[in-house]
Design goal:
With 262 residues, this protein is of the alpha+beta class. The chain contains eleven helices and ten strands. The chain has a seven-stranded antiparallel beta sheet. The chain has a three-stranded antiparallel beta sheet with strand order 5-4-7, with no helix packed on it. The longest helix has 18 residues. The relative contact order is 0.14.
Amino acid sequence: MTEFARSTALPYFEARRSCQTNTCYRPHTHDAFSVGVVDEGVSVFAGVLTGKIELMPGDVIVIPAEHVHQCNPVGGEWLYRMLHIEQSWAEQAADAQSPIDPFAAIAVYRGARIRSLIDRWLDELFEDAPASLLEATRDEVIHALSHTVPELRVTVDRNEHLLDELAPVFARLRSDEVNPSLDDLGALVGMDRYRLVREVKRATGLPPLAWRQNARIAESRRMLREGMPIADAAIALGFTDQSHFHRVFRAHVAAAPGGYRA
């Protein structure tokens, strides 16, 4: 069974169907709008503000881009499927007058209608359906998410002013070949190391070096999707060697780089 599928018609539309039996995900974000379906088993979802949420078979979880989370099985086998969609593309189907903004909060839906729409969308992507069909289903999904009250909804407000203030820190974290010191990062924005860690975590949900690892893995996924060899991606992103890259990638993605790239 193919674990990952990507649309040949749309620039960033990816799906995954996976089976996990171990706790393996670190807190992370996606640079995409994500929708997940639990098929079998029980898992615990944890976000910055959500606390721990138990997800059951049939549950649909919606995670906007850049929202920190992790989800791991509670004993036994856990089967799930996931869609990752370029958020700006998904937002084209949004209606400003809708009662619910699906791009502003982590939400859990428990209902047959939402589930059946996501099932159809996943099937279309694994069958590499044409763009017109994927877009038509997108419109139905976003409309349903915007007009259905979820079982749980947790809004995570982005502090744009703080993100702008910390922009030099994020630039260093992205560009430096080795981990910069917290003191050096703090000096960029007039903070000591302790305040820096608090403020970066308040702005992003992750401390500075965890944010750096997450950003590097997000970039590595883009590189691998575009066909870059694994060794070249590891070198380009400053990992000490391919095995180091493999360990960090698996901790964030719960898959090996080779399996993701295939």
